[in-house]
Amino acid sequence: MKLSYRDKVIAIVLIVILIIVAGSIIFVKPMMDKTALAQAELDKIQQEKKSVEDKIATLETIKQGIRNDLGSIDEYQQLFFTEDYGFEMEREIRAYCEEVGLSVRDLTFSSSATNLLPAAYVPSPYWLAYEMKMDADLYAQLPEAVYDLWNKTAYARGAGQQIGSTTYNIAFNDITQWEDLMPLFDRAATHEKAIYIPSYSLSNVGEEGTSSLAFTIYHIVPMDVEQVQAAEDNDGVLPTDEVSAEETPAEVSTDEPAA
User: Fold this and answer.
1) What is the C-alpha to C-alpha distance for residues 198 and 215, in angstroms, rounded to an integer?
2) First to last CA, the chain
3) Residue 19: pLDDT band with limits 50, 70, 90
4) What 8-state DSSP symbol labels residue 83?
5) Segment 157-186 mean pLDDT
């Protein structure tokens, strides 16, 4: 059957269209799929990049928080003695007793041991917060701690911590009344370090009196805050001192001497 010119043109156009459609299916669609996958991977990477950038943006805030924590650590650790202070404390006790006129008959101290440092003590009247008590406080005269407890914002006391300690036992001569021991109580209360008095006693024998007093000091191995701060300022790497050429040991030659 002979095709007319018009039919031939239509057939050629259809063949071209089929080739284009088939080519798009065979070649273009896989490329589009690859592009879609690449775009999804790019979106994922950009999201990860944004997450990293957000973390980097908070780095300075974190560093400032660490600096504040280090400052608090340095402040609190000043309240404790160091582990090697035992004999120094004995001399300090004897010197202070002599200063206030107390005659020391005997002074002993135990070997250092690990003991529980209790949580901070809060006076019992401040522990309670209940409706009748709060209603009776018409002029807001209760301590702030009571309102914190009532509003459920009171700071929860944590458990005690194990810490090093040394206990000293002092026996005195010629102590007949409690007032004679008050300078030691005052000294313990105003001392810049942590001191705890677990026991004391007083007994009268005729005109003479004897007394004893025990107190405990708490000690730690302090953190080198300056070193930690230096490492933090150097992105976690401790700075090292440069070694000069004079301090560098000379290389030792292992060659046999010439004959």
Assistant:
1) 6
2) 110
3) confident
4) T
5) 78
Q: What is the pLDDT of residues 44-55, one digit of tens each?
A: 999 999 988 888
For residue 17, which amino acid is it? I
Q: How many residues does the chain have?
A: 259
Give the pLDDT confidence score for residue 95 in this predicted structure: 87
* Residue written as token pair 């150097």: 234
**What is the C-alpha to C-alpha distance for residues 154 and 226, in angstroms, rounded to an integer?**
33
In a domain, 71, yes or no: no
Instruction: Assess whether 53 and 176 both reside in one domain.
Output: no
Structural domain span for residue 188: 81-220
Residue with tokens 């019992």: 124
Residue whose C-alpha is closest to residue 86's, from 240, 219, 252, 243: 219
Q: Structural domain tally of the chain?
A: 2
Q: Retrieve residue 74's tokens.
A: 């340095």
Q: Per-residue pLDDT tens for 85-138?
A: 777 888 888 888 888 888 888 888 876 777 776 665 555 555 678 888 888 888
Contact 78, 192 (CB under 8 A): yes
Which tokens go with 20? 């284009």
Mean pLDDT of the chain: 76
Q: Residue 84 to residues 47, 87, 227, 244: CA-CA distances in angstroms?
A: 54, 8, 21, 35
Q: How far apart are CA 97 and CA 191, in angstroms?
A: 14
